[in-house]
Amino acid sequence: MTVFPYFEDETSLNQWLSAQIRELDLSIGRALDVESGLHDAKDLGEPTRLNKAIATLVDVEAGLEAIVPRPEPVSAISPTISEVAAYAERLMASPWQRRLEVRIRLPRQELEEVRFAALKHDLDRAIDHSERIVGKVVQAVQCAQSLSHEIPISEFATEIEELLEGARRTARQIKNTLTHGARLWRTRAHLLVLTGHLKHSQSLTNGLADRITVEDIGHLSREQLSQGFLNHNILTKTLNEVLDLADQLSGELARLCNLERTLAAAHSRARPNPELADALNSDMHHGREHGFNRALTMALASGIENITQATTNFTGADLTTFDLHGVPLAGIRWSPTTRWPDNWTTLIQLTSIEVSPDLFEIREDPRLNTHATT
């Protein structure tokens, strides 16, 4: 147990404290070699070398993304119901006369192209591809850093790391633009930049063997050479895989753009029917601004199918008082309980075939056009 002396005044206390501090300094000096410590610290090299070493182990962007929550994607919180689907529901509840009127002005071919494009498109799959691309590019960065450390060729190390860092940033931009509903032209532009970085990196990696000299590897052990060439093979394989993913994503984006084009064409042809045209325009702009998510496209495809059903299925309908002149009858389905105007019944029976028990479909026939003009 330490016993502290008794001090009669403050001056004596201060003198004792000063002596103790001097003794502590001497003790620290004997225990620590300050000059050696400074020398060791300087051996870490320039800050850029330290930064590269840290970057090899730490993915700062991924860390920030995990720590700082991104805003929820607009496409996830915006209304995902399709206006076309809502229009289809109203149409299916409409009287037979209204359905016939819509059929006259219906751009059937263009709507079928929209439905087909909506079913083939898959934004979620495109996002999944973008996430896998990010992971593969990060893996490529790590392989390149390990390779440049094991087989130090300064020009290769500088070029490949800059290219792959650019590829990593661009890959994250692609993922973010898809997830948060940016316009497709921006995503496709990012993908072109990414592919350029990757192909240049692939060219450098494939040509590395031709650039290595005896001076570069003469001092390396067999184990170091073996590990270096193993990482070279891994890097080559990873770049091939990420380029393949980029090609698949390009196909997904092309299908997304095709959905936009078919919607625009259908909107243009649907203008004689303002209600349908407005619904198509609304879905088109929602998809452009917030992303064609799966809920929207499935509802859109289902809505078009219901529009077709509402303007095609006239089983049990009483059409005796309707004027069928100008109505495109080919494709309409009817049943024995469907009632036609008197001067049409025989002709419709002659130009129809039975597609299932008690279900008939009117086929294209010149007699229909002749009768419609008489």
Which features does this protein show?
mainly alpha; single chain; 18 helices
Please provide a brief summary of the model.
With 374 residues, the chain is mostly helical.
Task: Give a written overview of the molecule.
With 374 residues, the protein is mostly helical. 71% of the residues lie in helices and 3% in strands. It has 18 helices and three strands. The protein has helices at residues 10-31, 34-42, 47-57, 60-67, 74-77, 83-92, 96-104, 108-120, 123-150, 154-179, 184-206, 208-211, 214-217, 222-269, 274-290, 294-310, 345-350, 366-372; strands at residues 333-334, 352-356, 359-362. It has a three-stranded antiparallel sheet with strand order 1-3-2. A hairpin with a 2-residue loop joins strand 2 (352-356) and strand 3. It is elongated, with a radius of gyration of 37 Å.
Q: What composes the largest sheet?
A: 3 strands, antiparallel
Strands ordered across the widest β-sheet = 1-3-2
- Tally the helices: 18
**Helix fraction bin:** over 70%
Strand content of the residues, in percent? under 5%
SSE pattern: HHHHHHHHHHHHHHHHEHEEH
Can you tell me the overall shape? elongated
Structural class: mainly alpha
Q: What is the CA-atom radius of gyration, in angstroms?
A: 37 Å
Number of DSSP E strands: 3
What is the end-to-end distance? 124 Å
What's the topology here?
Layout: H1 10-31, H2 34-42, H3 47-57, H4 60-67, H5 74-77, H6 83-92, H7 96-104, H8 108-120, H9 123-150, H10 154-179, H11 184-206, H12 208-211, H13 214-217, H14 222-269, H15 274-290, H16 294-310, E1 333-334, H17 345-350, E2 352-356, E3 359-362, H18 366-372
Helix pairs in contact: 6-15, 6-16, 8-14, 8-16, 9-10, 9-14, 10-11, 11-14, 14-15
